[in-house]
Amino acid sequence: MRLRICTWNVNSVRLRHEQVARFVREQAPDVLCLQEIKCREGEFPREAFVEMGLPHLKIAGQKGWHGVAIASALPLEDAPPLDVCREGHARCVGATVAGVEVHNFYIPAGGDTPDRAANPKFDHKLDFYEKLTAELGRRDRKAPLAVVGDLNVAPGEFDVWNHRYMSKIVSHTPVEVEAFAALKGSLDFIDLLRETTPEPQKLASWWSYRAQDFRVSNRGLRLDHILVTPGLREAAFRMGSAACRVHDDVRAWERPSDHAPVTADLVL
User: Fold this and answer.
1) d(CA 185, CA 175)
2) What is the pLDDT at residue 239?
């Protein structure tokens, strides 16, 4: 069976659930992982997701901020928690679907100043990475596990519009890139988007609202990721190569999120 996993920072699920429905009709994800839903669990538009054919839900909500959810066409089972947010924010939710353990994260952006001592938000971001890396390091590399979401780090030179400039800006500073590399190394994660589209081709999944036309300004960052353990390598490469892509056309829809969805196909 094909299992299509999607991650999307939707930037308010109540505001954009009609866009989500359109995307589901066009791309048919089996598991949709949303970040920044910006609502409490009881405020989540459940009926809309039932109508989309994604009736199975795991939601970690928060009033007005953050919030993550997994919506699935297939039944969801509980997964061992990876609750590593020291502030108690609704930033992580996990579930097992079709035998694959999926953990959906909205990692803190980190504020404007890349200094742990001067900026508590940046310290929180790195603390989140450190705790998550330590927790994952205790897991089995052979187990079928996926970490997805808005991880708020563009890890490579070709994941930003200008490497030299962005190396001084939160999201691509050396310490953040190192934190991402440590997370990836904790279970020898496979970066499916980069396996599908190798460097030096540039990739982005986020573009600022400040640009009148995001394609013309072309100042994007690859902040949204689908990482899988070696236990899913065969499933990811069953067709000979990984199938993972950024749906940047969605960023051009009316009143879009500043993030585009990312999908990956596993053949189980």
Assistant:
1) 15
2) 80
Find out whether 229 and 184 touch, Cβ atoms under 8 Å.
Answer: no
**Strand positions, DSSP E, the chain:** 2-9, 31-35, 56-60, 68-72, 92-97, 100-106, 145-150, 190-191, 224-228, 243-246, 262-267
CATH code, 167: 3.60.10.10
In total, how many domains does the chain have?
1
Cα–Cα dist 77/8, whole Å: 21
Higher pLDDT, 60 or 242: 60
Q: Are 20 and 45 in contact (CB under 8 A)?
A: no
Q: Which of 39, 33, 104, 85 is nearest to 66 (CA)?
A: 39
Where does the pLDDT of residue 217 fall: very low under 50, low under 70, confident under 90, or very high at 90 and above? Answer: confident
Chain centroid offset of residue 169 CA: 20
pTM of the model: 0.97
Per-residue b or e along 187-199, where b marks 16 or more CB atoms closer than 10 Å to that residue's CB:
bebbbbbbbbbee
Count of all residues that appear for the chain in the document = 268
* Segment 48-94, tens digit of pLDDT: 999 999 999 999 999 999 999 999 999 999 999 998 999 999 999 99
Residues 6+ apart with CB under 8 A from 45: 13, 14, 17
Query: Range of 59's domain?
Result: 2-267
Is the separation of the CB atoms in 60 and 104 below 8 Å?
Answer: no
